[in-house]
Amino acid sequence: MDPKRTFLSWPVVRQVRAGDLLARGPAVTSEKTRSLQPRTATADRVVQSVCPYCAVGCGQRVFVKDERVVQIEGDPDSPVSRGRLCPKGSASEQLVNSPGRQTKVLYRRPHGTSWEPLDRETAIDMIVDRFIESRRNGWQDTDEHGRPLRRTMGIASLGGATLDNEENYLIKKLFTAAGAIQIENQARI
Amino acid sequence: MQDLANADCIIIQGSNMAECHPVGYQWVTEARLKGAKVIHIDPRFTRTSATADKHVPIRAGSDVVFLGALINHILANDLYFKEYVVAYTNAATIVGNEFKDTEDLDGLFSGYDEELGNYDPSSWAYATEGEGPDASPGTIGGPAAGHEHGHSKSERSAGDEHGSGGPALEHARVKRDETLQDPHTVFQILKRHYARYTPEMVADVCGVSVDDFHYVARALTENSGRDRTSAFCYAVGWTQHTLGAQFIRTAAIIQLLLGNMGRPGGGIMALRGHASIQGSTDIPTLYNILPGYLAMPMVGNHDTWDDYVAAIANKAQKGFWANADAYAVSLLKAWWGDAATKENNWAYDYLPRLSGAHGTYQTTMAMKDGEVEGYFLLGQNPAVGSAHGRMQRLALAELKWLVVRDLNMIESATFWKDAPEIATGELETEKIGTEVFFLPPASHVEKAGSFTQTQRLLQWRHKAVNPPGDCQSELGFFFELGKRIRERLADSDDPRDRPLLDLTWDYPLNEDGEISGEAVLQEINGRHLSGERAGELADMYTDLKADGSTSSGCWIYSGVYAKGVNRAANRKPGREQSPVAQEWGWAWPDNRRILYNRASADPEGKPWSERKKYVWWDEENQTWTGLDTPDFVKTTAPSYRPEPGTGGPAGLAGDDPFVMMADGKGWLFAPKGMLDGPLPTHYEPQESPVQNPLYRQQSNPARRVFPRKDNLWSPSGTAPGSEVYPFVFTTYRLTEHHTAGGMSRWLPYLAELQPEFFCEVSPELAEERGLVNGGWATIVSARSAIEARVLVTERMTPLVISGRTLHQVGLPYHWGVGKEALVSGDSANDLLGVALDPNVQIQESKAGSCDIQPGRRPEGEALLRLVHEYQSRAGVTVETSNQLKTTEDGT
Asked: Which residue is closest to B557 within chain A, CA to CA?
């Protein structure tokens, strides 16, 4: 007889002692269940973040193990959200880890019928070439009355509402200095 | 957001808050548990309605009638907060006698220019001190005050400049009649303007019963005053209309009349839909503004630095906008450093000029017409998410090159093989010359940076892990792009390249070898460049100078990095601080959580009541104090009265709480700034099966229309052919999806929860059209036809409008046609056309006309034939519904 098994470990006694009278809770958990630990408990570190969906700005806690995000939960410290997340915020771990997420640069040549792989450095260089050329092609020094315009209509951009303030700042700064004015984001929509 | 818990009544209109901002909604729930009355006014019954005290179904697009009737009710029954209204609003201010109301001109205000389809607002100006009521028209806000015609203002979407305060006035010497009896006072004008907005009119136009109207009116007025406050919450259900800005103005008038602005549990809560959509407006990736709501220069108006400074602010006006020159100089110093000097007007000529509206829709049309070569899409999916999806996709096919940066392979990146126009034969993959670069970005946990959420709160995100594969943050990408462009142009002597070469672009790298986001936020915050504090970060925007001795990339954010501390990263747990929670994140400006909070105290500086105390004047220490940072000059006593003519912050009297407004008052009547009228007035949507019963003028006469063959509209009102598209459709979001689906249709959990596009119809409409629950329906507008699963539900209420039953169709807009997402479907935005609000150039997507029929839509060319068949049956031409001014015969 297992010396640890005593009167106290009899099922009925366990049920009464644990307050689990219907034997659906702790009284009947298996060794396996007892040894399970939430991913949040085994994470190497927890990083404070903010939900990327709507503009309520719910606090998030990002749980990282082995340099991989293993779970994202609501941050109870946040006075805005008090630990809660909606279905989208609760699913945001999948936004990071979803198998469908694209992690490689792809290229579709003019009139092409499929994607081709492309090295990121080459892609950025190609974009620089096109940026400079289209900037020149769409350049307007003055309007029809000779008043200064100093701009290009060859380049446009859409996006920013999902980006960081610092990112929007660099985008606006670079495009404005390049003379590109057609810079927009979801706030117009 | 948390402050909603202090409200005694909350009206949610133009928003389905419980489903679209579920976590924010906890504060509404909390208010209700404390006894607040919650009312939801919306075309559809949703979870918001289910958890409210009352749901009031309304016809989409008729909100100004409902809200205008509340104004009429408040004024006619003397229910306004008299002391607040007289002291804090412009109710007592006298308007020049050239002003004519829509009640006098059958739906037009004075100053309408039929040729341009715009207003010259000079006749809306205040009368000037020293003039009798019969003297020449007032000039405050008139021609001398940096006058600019409505046309050019609309072109540069000038309404957006008021994101942080009101428009400039010449000075603040206004005439007032504090008895409110003078017929030229704003108060009396308001009374006359809304006199016909009666409960009966509400019943007729909105489809809301007289009893329901009185329920709302009673709840709102009984819960406003000294001891009680009410709040409004809205979202894009108000903004996406051809008079969207005026919807919000109507609510602002109500809140000012009831004394609910600047007070706890009061105000108007804009529920924005993207994590940093507020931030991307403050630091705009928008064509018409520079950081901090400074105008982008417009050719003809702002050709020189002096023109520009004179237009953005006037030293003689009251308040903090009078110092806009300091904000502008500091921005130019941040961007061009030592190359910005007094001699070259701080490099003002490095800024490109606008010549018209260059909003996203104008750009799409220019793209479609072959005028734009290259396009960047940064976390946005216009092929699905923008109005008129078909026009969007056809435009993408005309580009030379396209850069798509997105987490998932969105429809805007795959249009060249998957667009529905390939199925109809309008596009052919091999013939599309667009070169597409798809570059994956870092997700929100793979980079550090700040979002500004809907209540102006900046919250810093720490980086958790490195981005996988080729993924890179926008910060990294744009830093690199700028670096390489500058290297490529380094030897150029072309003057057009100077702004790029002189640009400050030398950011430090952090330990991961990435550009430091903190360094960028510090540049935004601003620095002292010379003088005693040279090198120090600015404490707040009052540090900024117009002499080139300071820099700041966005003046309203100045203070976020004061004393070298990243305050956006402040994280004192909510339970360890007061409910105002000023030690969590940082709110602009100056960490204030409620704007204009001087109004929470009475004119003498005492709280209006113990229950609603927030900030007050501390007589002993001669300073403003309270639960939040006072939004006022800290040492200006309530009794302070400036010398007449004093401008700037010193011009604010001790009882001028609206510190960003040129006269220190809350504006019931807008003498300037709104481009389609100084008062909100009801017009029908661009496309509506209903005739405007208030005026002959059918739709907003200043709205922006684009008569093009690819942008057709159904006939409106009683015009022949309107019966072909007899129903109203309105678009909306679901809890489980996010806008065009780029961040939700690729996630297994979310895709499974809401797998398929559907339309909501009432049992009565289902009966009338033979629609079966769970079956298919085809919805046809003047632009396109789409198919959706049918959801027959009593959540949709048929309304009786002008004596006939009107049905509305609800359409969530998250799906798109493509092969990459886990779930796909037709896109509701394909039904929409492009007609815009003149103030902000936002499209009308919340009300359109359609037909609905059982069964799936035809495929291929047959789809185009169906749309054409409807158009020809309705007699639709390029001119249909595009006349700005409604003529004698009602067209």
From this structure: A165
Look at residue B779 and tell me if it is in a domain: yes
What is the distance in angstroms between the Cα of B382 and the nearest Cα belonging to chain A?
9
Nearest to B468 among A103, A138, A161 (CB): A103
Distance CA B418, CA B439 (A): 19
Would you tell me the crossing angle of helices B360-368 and B389-396 to the nearest 10 degrees? 50
Give the residue among B191, B177, B223, B16 at the shortest CA–CA distance from B101: B191
Choosing from B212, B243, B270, the residue where a domain stops is B270
Mutation site, B239, B308, B360, interface A, largest A CB count within 10 A: B360
Give the type of residue at B552.
Answer: S
Reported confidence tier of residue B574, pLDDT bands at 50, 70, 90:
very high
- Set of chain A residues whose Cβ sits within 8 Å of the Cβ of B582: none
Considering chain B, what is the average pLDDT of its residues?
94
Tens of pLDDT, residue by residue over B790-837, are 999 999 999 999 999 999 999 999 999 999 999 999 999 999 999 999
**In b/e form, how buried is each residue of A113-131, taking b as 16+ CB within 10 angstroms?**
eebeebebeebbebbbebb
Per-residue model confidence as pLDDT tens digits over B539-562: 999 999 999 999 999 999 999 999
- CATH number of the domain bearing residue B854: 2.40.40.20
Residues 6+ apart with CB under 8 A from B303: A147, A148, B297, B353
Task: Determine the Cα angle at B506 with ends B502 and B508, to 5°.
Answer: 170
pLDDT bin (cut points 50, 70, 90) of residue A110 is very high
Domains along the sequence of chain A with CATH:
1-36 (no CATH), 39-97 (2.20.25.90), 138-188 (no CATH)
ipTM for the complex? 0.95
Domain count, chain B: 2
Among the candidates B221, B242, B270, a domain finishes at B270
Residue B850, domain extent: 722-874
Q: Read off the CATH number of the domain in which B198 is found.
A: 3.40.228.10
Residue B140 pLDDT greater than 50, yes or no = no
